[in-house]
Specification:
The structure holds two protein chains of two kinds. Helices cover about 30% and strands about 20% of the residues of chain A. Chain A is of the alpha/beta class. Chain A has two domains: about 1-95, no CATH class; about 100-300, Rossmann fold, CATH 3.40.50. In chain A, strands 6-5-7-4-8-9-10 form a seven-stranded parallel sheet, with helices on both faces. Chain A has a two-stranded antiparallel sheet with strand order 1-2. In chain A, α2 runs parallel beside α5 (about 185-190) and α3 (about 130-140) packs across α9 (about 290-300). By secondary structure, chain B is of the alpha+beta class. Chain B contains two helices and six strands. A three-stranded mixed sheet of chain B has the order 2-1-6, with helices on one face. A three-stranded antiparallel sheet of chain B has the order 4-3-5, with no helix packed on it. In chain B, β1 (about 25-30), α2 (about 40-50) and β2 form a beta-alpha-beta unit. Chain B is elongated, with a radius of gyration of 18 Å. Chain B starts with a helix and ends with a strand. Classes of the chains: A alpha/beta, B alpha+beta. At the A-B interface, β3, α2, α7 and α8 of A face α1, β1, β5 and β6 of B.
């Protein structure tokens, strides 16, 4: 079995019949370094330690690898070594590479518009829209706010946010995006076309209500934040660690309900710290107004003047 | 259920790279800290490739355990509990050594 192929850097890699691991070793470090340095700055800060030694050129084009290994894309690499035998072709492509390239394009647009961008996530019904409404009421006179509203089918949330002077761009993920349970970089990009970014100071991306999927997709934002309501119980950080680890802020909402619940706040905060010790916490009630000044200060920091 | 869009993304990358060569298997590496269900991903793969040039190919998923390193005491261990704490000294000052992988490592093409 001719499991050899020729990379354009002149290196031959023999893969005999070795499955899985044996051919990974030489490439991983270089790849992961580039991956983290090049793409994750500002969005997975807590995860990058240990991957930052050395390489900085990253994967911004998705093709060149820091260790000189080209991805086996058409036009790259010489694979003429195969003829009648099957062959394993190394590719080492990040599965979300295409998403991240689009997210980089979004990020460039955000930066050239001098815009702060927050990706706001939560499970359905935690209070994202209520907290955004409350923020618009308080800050819309001094900060120019745009909102990308992610919703599978409806415009209900977008309608709730109208009338405050904010520019709202709705993405229905059922229209051409397969009814996705999250916003990815391409969906956000489609919404940006309907916003005049340079006229804004702050863009909030209200993601689809979901504690799992949105955490995987960087859309080009500066910060990820989540809303968590005290009706959801104390254990969710341990059940959905990817979401709770991804955010720099957890807004704990509906605290006005605490007297009626058996919610153990200390236990929740301990669970949160177990998966994300660096997360900032703001306690709010969109209903009573508790904590909303602090929430607005965080949301608008560095936005506008 | 983002496994469907992820399957589409994998298929697009492999299709572009394979440039028409018949693919029988796609090898991916999936860290256990990713909230992606391997069985669901395999199922979604069959849906996504159905009726395309990749139909009949399989998705081979290698799961990578989550390993942590403690910045306080230096212990390195496989994550077993839900909490990201050092199993030796209890510190929360831990670094993820592995478990966030999400890569297409290679694909196998059929001989002519």
């Amino acid at each position: 079995m001719g499991r050899f192929h020729h990379h354009s850097d002149g290196a031959f890699h023999g893969h005999a019949d070795a499955p899985a691991d044996s051919h990974h070793d030489g490439h991983h470090d270089g790849h992961h370094d580039g991956h983290h340095d090049g793409h994750h700055d500002g969005h997975h800060d807590g995860h990058t330690d240990g991957h930052t030694d050395g390489h900085t050129d990253g994967h911004t084009d998705g093709h060149a690898h820091p260790d000189g290994l080209p991805a086996a894309r058409s036009g790259l690499g010489d694979h003429s070594g195969y003829d009648d035998a099957g062959e394993r072709i190394e590719i080492l492509e990040r599965i979300l590479g295409e998403n991240d390239r689009t997210a980089e394009a979004n990020r460039r647009d955000f930066r050239s518009a001098d815009l702060r961008v927050v990706n706001l996530m939560s499970s359905p019904g935690a209070g994202k829209t209520s907290l955004l409404r409350a923020a618009l009421e308080r800050v819309a006179s001094r900060v120019r706010v745009g909102i990308v509203e992610g919703d599978i089918y409806t415009s209900i949330d977008a309608d709730r946010l109208s009338g405050f002077g904010a520019a709202v761009s709705l993405v229905n993920t059922a229209n051409g995006f397969g009814g996705e349970c999250h916003l990815d970089a391409t969906m956000v990009r489609s919404a940006l076309a309907r916003l005049d970014l340079p006229s804004l100071d702050l863009l909030v991306i209200e993601n689809v209500g979901n504690l799992v999927c949105p955490a995987e997709f960087w859309v080009g934002e500066d910060a990820k934040a989540m809303v968590y309501s005290v009706t959801e119980g104390e254990e969710k950080p341990l059940k959905y660690p990817a979401m709770f680890r991804a955010v720099e802020l957890a807004v704990v909402n509906k605290v006005d309900l605490l007297p009626h619940l058996e919610f153990d706040m200390d236990r929740f905060l301990d669970n949160l710290a177990d998966v994300n010790p660096d997360a900032r916490v703001i306690m709010t009630s969109a209903r009573t107004g508790a904590g909303l000044d602090e929430w607005c200060d965080w949301l608008t920091q560095g936005a506008g003047s | 259920m983002h496994e469907l869009s992820i399957s589409r993304s994998i298929a697009a990358t492999v299709r572009e790279s394979a440039a028409g060569r018949p693919v029988e298997r796609v090898n991916v590496e999936l860290g256990q800290l990713r909230q992606i269900v391997p069985e669901t991903l395999r199922h979604c793969w069959t849906l996504v490739v159905e009726g395309t040039d990749l139909e009949g190919s399989t998705l081979e998923i290698t799961e990578v355990p989550a390993a942590l390193e403690c910045r306080s005491c230096g212990a390195r261990f496989t994550l077993r509990a839900a909490a990201f704490r050092c199993e030796r000294c209890g510190s929360r000052e831990v670094t993820i050594a592995s478990g966030e992988e999400f890569m297409i490592t290679s694909y196998d093409v059929v001989g002519a």
